[in-house]
């Protein structure tokens, strides 16, 4: 086997965190903005987010939700209403106190002391309270229910330590909010949206997530139940990729979301909320990326195919571009994975080989290079991003189909790559998920033994309150957290590794982002 | 002619401002949020904005722009760099001064004095300066140019008097920002984007706008040239519906957007910016709305066709729903105006007649009611929103095609309605545009003479500086402003109505939103 010269400087095995940063920078996905904790999402990164938005938005609308838009500012008093919610959120938030600037003594600008707000406004960290106010106005009778809303928006949580896409002070997300007539329907809806997230994560992003309920200590502030999908990154850590909350009547009580039921008396609504954010982009990087950069599932690639003619600034270029344009047109006229195929013919100045590596780092699923000799032979040189290298030669694994064959088979290659990335993610997750651990000492041993130890599934007695706190503290010593209680876990057959009591369910333990 | 009982309480002719508010409320488009100057955009209103976004985004991408996302917060110091820009913006803005809340003495929450920001952050009123910083990092050589970016975002300008959609403290928009190698290319691009806006406004929104350059006093802060599209509302006022700015090297100087040109020396970029916002929704209301509510051009209607079975909570309902469902499926399988037809079969509880008026007020282009008798006769009852009334009978002008004919002809009706609304808007604009005014006294007379006086086109000598200020002051006395210098105006043939000097161009005078 020949030595391969990878397209990045850092390898995943050497320094996963540095590798992650290098992918983001090399793929031109995002960068620090100079504004504390806020990133600039560059066109390639934003193009991925736009693709995610489109696919998830279709799923959210297909389940009967309408999009709406609510104010970015939330009056301070809203946060004083729902006690647990305050406790969870009323800490690190951006607070607007003035509405005007004037020149200060040194000539610079300062907030105008004359323009101080009577009540400070908080830049929304989430919109439960303000959407709750609107729901209270809109819901009067059982006929108005269920009320199913979604919002695409930016939110701000003042994070002390930030990491691009994974944890930023400002991030983009969707937040769904629904109101229902009773507990059963609201709980059912909480799980329906969890399933929407699971399907989106697996079928569109190829993440191979595990869906399950969060333990009490990991619940959203104010929620009765919190469910999540968890994805395993290539360093074995877990990424919470989406959450769905059953909020009981906590928020409807605080906001007064009431309705006249069929019997004519007044009831409180049962509400849900659920969200997925730009951190999902980080999950895609750490699930599919490799030592050559990003690798994108075709469904979310801004461009699925990039065609690079090897231009030489000579008159022959014209014929070469025509040759490539015919392939582009053939591909663009086709559908793949339910949508028109996205193909770019890149004729900007620059060497094709240099551009090839740019698109490899950006994770474009299929890269097609065409030189004069290819044209003369009626072929093209085709690279599939997830099978980049020929292990024997150590060189890029170019296929050289005829242009006609390429025009016919590229959609199949893309569909195969989408499926194959999910299979790979699922296999990796299963290989790195350790079961059958008998006691906590084995857990400690497991996580101490390797750099990327994956997840461990254990059985527990589902302690609550102080007993749970003790478990959480003990896990914390090893930087471990309980991810969730997988919905499809095997039945329990032993005792709790923490308390020794009879186990009631299985939980996943992992280090997490 | 019989008396018509319109679906709104307020008539345009009686109180245009009150009518506007009633449309927004009756069509469930938006409402006050309780947060100062910020509105809640309800699903129907947001659905219209989503349609606009999709159509305009396609046009922006088709002209070679990529979307990206920049931080919502802008450091104060950014505003101190470009002098004119500061002067124009550094006034009424939301200023973030703290990043944490704590409990105050009275138990309520207060900004934590320990968590005061060293440098206050401004919630973006527009993103020239922060995008300029990014451009300075991204542009190194002539090969990086042109750089063509667009952002969809929320922005905040602390407005004292707000009106839903037209002027709100927070609003949604797109802002395009481009950098070019020279003045000619940047100016050409400024006009290209103006043309994109004109085409969007006319072809998608049916507004019949006038494109032209703004006079010096109406320029965007820091711009060298500002161009606009102006739409005439039904009260004769003008609405600035979109602007495109050539910024010269003002912002590239301030942010350091430089490049190495082909000769190897360093040059400043020439930049442009351009934006369209949710105020466009207000423009649609005031252009197409009538005394029955909103009337939507089919291209931007969230639902183009609404089918209302007259359900009676009886077993026969099932057959009726099947009958309607077949029509829905026939329509949904077709394309109209370049996209899949959007049709809703509404089977929620409630009387069909009450729902009909709800959808009339919401401006759904085609409403189809189906009762048991219609089904027995194989027909449907069809209303076209822009031809709602039968003037003779004073009743809704139902057509009763067979279901098969409806399935075939509805796409044509929608396409015809799209065209017909543009024709109507263009005719109304031309009828209310007065030309051939000889002096300012005639202008005064014209605007004093009627309630909805429309626009007046006059010739002027294009005064600048103090001379222009005098003109602006004089117009202000009559609440008039100069809208723009129409690109397709006739050649001048007389003298300036303000200065008496030889005229050099024609300008539009109007009251404006």
Automatic annotation (TrEMBL), chains A, B:
Record comment regarding domains: Consists of three domains: the N-terminal catalytic domain, the anticodon-binding domain and the C-terminal extension.
HAMAP family: Pro_tRNA_synth_type3
Origin species: Qipengyuania profundimaris
Catalytic activity: tRNA(Pro) + L-proline + ATP = L-prolyl-tRNA(Pro) + AMP + diphosphate
CDD domains: ProRS_core_arch_euk
Protein name per UniProt: Proline--tRNA ligase
Domain Aminoacyl-transfer RNA synthetases class-II family profile: 28-297
Highest taxon above the source species: Bacteria
InterPro entries assigned: aa-tRNA-synt_IIb (IPR002314), aa-tRNA-synth_II (IPR006195), aa-tRNA-synth_II/BPL/LPL (IPR045864), Anticodon-bd (IPR004154), Anticodon-bd_dom_sf (IPR036621), Pro-tRNA-ligase_IIa_arc-type (IPR004499), Pro-tRNA_ligase_II_C (IPR016061), Pro-tRNA_synth_II (IPR017449)
Function: Catalyzes the attachment of proline to tRNA(Pro) in a two-step reaction: proline is first activated by ATP to form Pro-AMP and then transferred to the acceptor end of tRNA(Pro).
EC number: 6.1.1.15
Keyword annotations: Aminoacyl-tRNA synthetase, ATP-binding, Cytoplasm, Ligase, Nucleotide-binding, Protein biosynthesis
Main location: cytoplasm
Gene Ontology molecular function: proline-tRNA ligase activity
Family: Belongs to the class-II aminoacyl-tRNA synthetase family. ProS type 3 subfamily.
Protein's cellular compartments: Cytoplasm
PANTHER family, A to Z: BIFUNCTIONAL GLUTAMATE_PROLINE--TRNA LIGASE (PTHR43382:SF2), PROLYL-TRNA SYNTHETASE (PTHR43382)
Assembly and binders: Homodimer.
């Amino acid at each position: 086997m020949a030595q391969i010269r990878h397209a990045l400087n850092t390898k995943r095995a050497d320094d996963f965190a540095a590798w992650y940063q290098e992918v983001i920078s090399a793929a031109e996905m995002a960068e620090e903005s100079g504004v504390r904790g806020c990133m600039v999402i560059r066109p390639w990164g934003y193009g991925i987010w736009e693709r995610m938005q489109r696919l998830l938005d279709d799923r959210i609308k297909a389940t009967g939700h309408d999009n709406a838009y609510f104010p970015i500012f939330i009056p301070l008093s809203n946060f004083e209403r729902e006690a647990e919610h305050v406790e969870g959120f009323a800490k690190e938030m951006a607070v607007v106190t003035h509405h005007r600037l004037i020149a200060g003594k040194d000539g610079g600008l300062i907030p105008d002391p004359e323009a101080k707000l009577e009540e400070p406004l908080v830049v929304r960290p989430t919109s439960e309270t303000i959407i709750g106010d609107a729901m209270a106005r809109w819901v009067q009778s059982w006929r108005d229910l269920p009320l199913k809303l979604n919002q695409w928006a930016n939110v701000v949580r003042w994070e002390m330590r930030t990491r691009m896409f994974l944890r930023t002070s400002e991030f983009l997300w969707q937040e769904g909010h629904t109101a229902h007539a009773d507990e059963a329907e609201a709980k059912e809806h909480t799980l329906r949206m969890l399933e929407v997230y699971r399907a989106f994560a697996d079928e569109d992003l190829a993440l191979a997530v595990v869906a399950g309920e969060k333990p009490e200590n990991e619940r959203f502030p104010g929620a009765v139940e919190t469910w999540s999908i968890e994805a395993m990154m290539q360093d074995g850590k877990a990424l919470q990729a989406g959450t769905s909350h059953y909020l009981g009547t906590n928020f409807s009580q605080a906001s007064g979301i009431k309705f006249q039921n069929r019997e004519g008396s007044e009831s409180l609504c049962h509400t849900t909320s659920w969200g997925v954010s730009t951190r999902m982009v980080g999950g895609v990087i750490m699930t599919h990326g490799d030592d050559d950069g990003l690798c994108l599932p075709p469904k979310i690639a801004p461009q699925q195919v990039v065609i690079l003619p090897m231009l030489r600034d000579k008159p022959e270029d014209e014929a070469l571009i025509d040759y490539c344009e015919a392939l582009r047109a053939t591909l663009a006229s086709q559908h793949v994975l339910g949508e028109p195929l996205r193909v770019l013919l890149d004729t900007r100045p620059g060497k094709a080989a240099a551009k090839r590596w740019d698109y490899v780092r950006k994770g474009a699923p299929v890269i097609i290079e065409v030189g004069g000799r290819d044209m003369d032979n009626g072929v093209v040189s085709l690279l599939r991003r997830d099978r980049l290298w020929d292990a024997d030669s150590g060189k890029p694994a170019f296929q050289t189909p005829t242009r006609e064959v390429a025009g016919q088979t590229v959609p199949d290659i893309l569909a195969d790559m989408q499926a194959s990335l999910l299979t790979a993610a699922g296999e990796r997750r299963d290989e790195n998920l350790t079961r059958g651990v008998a006691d906590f000492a084995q857990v400690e041993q497991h996580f101490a033994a390797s750099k990327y130890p994956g997840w461990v599934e254990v059985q527990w007695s589902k302690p609550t309150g102080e007993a749970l706190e003790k478990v959480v503290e003990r896990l914390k010593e090893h930087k471990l957290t309980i991810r969730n209680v997988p919905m499809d876990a095997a039945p329990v057959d032993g005792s709790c590794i923490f308390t020794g009591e009879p186990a009631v369910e299985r939980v996943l333990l992992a280090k997490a982002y």
